[in-house]
Amino acid sequence: MSEHRRTNSRGRSTVLKVVILGDGGVGKSCLMQRFVTDRFDANSFHTIGVEFLNKEIDLDGEIYTLQIWDTAGQERFKSLRTPFYRGSDMCLLTFALDDAKSFQNLDAWRKEFIYYADVKADFPFMVVGNKMDLPRAVSTEEATAYCNANGDLNYTETSAKESKGVEEAFTSCLKRWAAIDTPQESLPLPDSVQLSNTGAHSRGICSSGCS
Ligand SMILES: Nc1nc2c(ncn2[C@@H]2O[C@H](COP(=O)(O)OP(=O)(O)OP(=O)(O)O)[C@@H](O)[C@H]2O)c(=O)[nH]1
Question: Where is the segment annotated Disordered (predicted)?
Fold first, then answer.
């Protein structure tokens, strides 16, 4: 695909792969849809496999194409989603602010991603607490403490439903990516990855672009 050869003035790619991870039902598909199409689906179903959408974004006068990969959060789809982690430029680790379990599972998601993506030490993760429009089960302080304790991860809160903080989440992650200048050491691979089982109903297929 010729698009993948597009580079900026520093010779870095301007087509960037962004993977969204997190428990089933935390709002990954809705975040992607809100960011790309500015729509919200109150009846969004569980994703099976992966789906992606492209969105162009201007950062300091440079146009980047974010290729956003929405993954299936349910444990039973692990074998379908993990092959798509490799080659990622950024990762949104997502939980729902009204769901403490989804927050507890964040670290397993981070480890799963590191294990299958084999990313560098300074890899740009963005931790996203979604559903800020609902009553909270997780405080900003708890989430920030997790981020500080795990390599100074960026943290932000969003509501895909009310269109709050969504564009900022993606833009901040892109800024962090842009700030990384040099090749870094790979992160050590975790020994194992274990997610608690999540979610119930399902929809979807591995959609366009899943080559
Ligand atoms: N109140 C509220 N509901 C949301 C928000 N974002 C998503 N939802 C709802 O949460 C449910 C799950 O959203 P999805 O985007 O399908 O969740 P997902 O993380 O993609 O789920 P999987 O595909 O199973 O991994 C849907 O009913 C959405 O309408 C939000 O910001 N606020």
Answer: 188-211
